[in-house]
Protein 1
Amino acid sequence: MRPFALVWGGQLVSVVGSALTGFVLAVWVYQVTGSVTQLALVTAANTVPGILLAPLAGVVADRWDRRRLMIIADFAAAVPTAVVAALYWTGQLEVWQLYLTTACTAAAGVFHSSAYFTMVPKLVPKRHLGRINGLFQVNFAMAAAAPVLGGILLSTLDVDGVLLLDLATFVFAATALMVVRLPEGATRATEGKAGPRSMLGDLGYAFRYLARRPGLLWLIGFSALFDLLFAFAEVLIRPLILAFSSPATLGLLMFVGGAGLFAGTLTMTAWGGPRRKVSGSLLFTGIGGVALALHSLAPSTLLIAIVAPVFLFTLPIVNGCVMTVFQTKVDSDALGRVTGLARVLWQAATPLGALIAGPLADLIFEPAMRAGGTLAGSAGSLLGTGPGRGIALLYAVIGLLLVLLAIAGSRLRRLRHLEDDLPDAVSDKEPTEPTPTR
């Protein structure tokens, strides 16, 4: 477990640095433009490269040295961050430039995450995968907690200082990868199992692999819909809170929400998730939907501080269960290609949700929930009218859809019995001794 711990620690530092950058730039964009749509476009730019490059990244992760791929990706992601820092320092930074630099950083990130995900089953035995995938969610919990530090750093280091700090974390993560000794077979697919030699052949292999396992296809579809609804909530949470509070309060509430996320990661790490991972994912999706809908009741800091941690507590368990199913049921030497194909849907959900949520909020729900708006006498009588209440109504709808998704998933036999229908693709033996770093 020591090699995994060293790799994970380095990546955790990098994730926190990137989260700080994401927070301060999101605040900057919203304060400069006052537009949810502009904010959503930056979010979309962070995920569109994943749609286009995920299949290729999966093929590369199954073919190339995964350690080297992660190191190259770390440095490639640092370059756009340095460009943004230079533009801000010289007073030339504009919102449209963030679309381009964010897309470049995301492109490097998809290769990095593909290599990281496929390496894990070779670093730890099967019985620990649920706990390890819970530990993965610590990265997201720390990212959610980063806004508190980001709010402090904005008043001390300013935006360019936070960007320079992010650059340092990229270097730290790459250095950790360079010095760690990894078990035999962790960095490259086993010879003879890498599948067809052509890139197109590898993509076709992934299609055929999933076609023979329809339960995995249903799980991909469930995860994509979950990601779509979560993307709505993620892009709308900042304007929802900023409608009745300050950026400092936003940072504090995101920290409180992050505490719930962190508690969920600790629970998943200690517990490993339920024995039946698919059922656990469906159950906690329903619980999260209820908590998300409760965000809409009132423009209250106290309310958000209570329900946001509950919703975010469920997220590591849902994601951890899904990740464990894939790592357990998909051969590790094909994991990059198969999950690369799946990520097309998973990552398409995020920009699609962001692109839809912004115009819905700006053009339909917010005007409808103003005093005298079309919904002021109906939904407005329950949720209130004014700035942010249209977004609150959207939260109620999203929460209800998550509950319906959980119920529908529990009625699908292919999904519900996936773990019984498919044999495990990995054994529970310990990884071999580490090989020297090269």
Protein 2
Amino acid sequence: MCKVAAIQMKPASGQTDANLQQAVFMAEQAVGEGAELLVFPELWKTGYHLKKEEFLRLAETRDGKTVSLFRDLARKWGTVIVVPFAEIDGDHLYISLAVIERTGELLATYRKSFVWGKEKDSFTNGERQYRVIHTSLGKIGVLICYDIEFPEPARLLALQGAELIIVPSVWSFGAETRWDIQLPARALDNTVFILGVNTVGEGSCGKSKLVAPDGQVLCEASREEACILLHDIQPELIGKARARIPYLADFDESLLPGGEARKSGMVILG
């Protein structure tokens, strides 16, 4: 499929210029090492531990400076980029991401559908609709942090043909055990690749990781240091895993709501 780069950053709260400089520097390094897909963590530009008024000041629209810059960089570098951002839309704030093709085309945006804990003081849940995104590197799904703790979104993406599910996150030390369990579990449940991209600092546990379709952790980043995690994705591992572990072939689709609608990603959860 491609060589992926998880950009595990150490954001400084509210320091958007410094965080952007760090992101571009690390991304350029990854591109120099052959990365074809770049993924940044959740809320990397703003930091995580801010009050609502601070997020309101720093949030952008989906055609704002951050997404526009990374569209230009995707075109310059010839890479696919998944870049989260704090999004403002009218009176609402969302934790969002943009998926950008190597041509600079904005393929899709996604809003975190399950807002966690104190995030509810600032952010609104996005729609619980999950659609596969067709990129030049293959079919990907995107979820954000807490979304991966529910089995249904990942399953819906897998049933639509996702080969890789990308999960930008700010995952805490207190929830580290869940990070170590749930990413491999979702990969194995659905026999797909899972790429979790976390931050360090601000109480985050790092350990960005790429998990194979059989649940094996292929590579894992530092628990405390900013770094670039690079690894090749081999799509043939999906077929091999599904030949041994026929979860999707044996799954009873009548257990899902929406009937045929789920094939187009139109199932709405909750």
Protein 3
Amino acid sequence: MKKLIINHQSVPAIGLGTWHMGDNPQTRKNEISAIQAGLNAGARVIDTAEMYGAGRSESLVGEAIRDYSRETLFLISKVLPSNASIGRLEKSLDASLKRLQTDYLDLYLYHWRGTTPLAETVAELDRLTHTGKIRAWGVSNFDYVDMQELLQLPAGQNVAANEDLYNLGSRGTEVRLQAWQEAHQIPFIAYSPVGAGDSLGANMTASPAVQAVAERHQVSTYQVLLAWAIRNPNILVIPQTSDPSHAEANVLAGNLTLTKKDLIELDQAFPKPTSEPPLAIL
């Protein structure tokens, strides 16, 4: 199973996303089972955020991981821009920890840029790494220019990851950002690696090229999309599903290595942009 290093820890390159989970009491049992199925299949990373369901996603994760050894997990959550000031950030973190039923996060991300000065948010995130409540901090929805600015700050070099939208049909971060992050040893976390239940996701799975690759390897089209997204060693993907069997299959896609022929066909069907587009954000 492919792995990468985040904050000196080796983790499988396919983790578990939780956006849109925890909102519906009728699907809660299945969602918990899906998280557990993913963990049982070999996943370590669970990605959530205080924004997801106004904390309900974090509470769901806390329930799902109750019987797992904390040391075997790599938990990521995110702070909203409105809570990213010196006066509010630690309180927000404490609330996330309580919902997750843990006393620390492995990685805490600034969800996207807001009105609080970046220097203030980064200084507070860095301070929190000395409290024991977070092991590392990072950012999300930052583009190349944002990352350049970040690294100029006094504690900016301590950034442990950046999480952006990335999949076969949305490749803008390949133009500059991904290579730059790899050169600076900053892991890239890809959200919505198989789309987000939208037309793009449907277009990718319906693509004759994707289907042909899936048929050759006797895997699902989703597994092809995930294997493609982690073909480079600096990328972690966090697909979300509420279906336990789908969650297991997602994680097992980490064992699939695409051939040169596969990659050429997929590249021809969904070419990398020739110039850098605005950062794609959901």
